[in-house]
Amino acid sequence: xxxxxxxxxxxxxxxLAPREFIALAKERGFDDPSTKAGTIVEWLKQDYDLGRGxxxxxxxxxxxxxxxxAKHVGSSGSHRDESDTLWLDGKKNRPEAG
Length: 98
Description:
This protein has helices spanning 3-14, 18-27, 37-48, 52-64. The chain is mostly helical. α1 packs across α4 (52-64) and α3 (37-48) crosses α4. The radius of gyration is 13 Å and the shape is globular. It comes from Nonomuraea phyllanthi.
């Protein structure tokens, strides 16, 4: 599953776009660099029933933003992404590929 697909699946399950999770995390102070990933994973498990893989995708965008390593872009296989920048504003707001 691509990184973007993880985020899209989270949106399908919770009804929240990644940017909304970033705002919720900021309200809780989880965007602080000292916040451990496990703290965020536990919050996402308790409040949204997200598993570790999906939660870690959100940990990345909460702590590091939308950029991902270019090694995942254009590669073959199920983990390949189209871009090194993840779309955080919801599936229905994503521009059509072109």
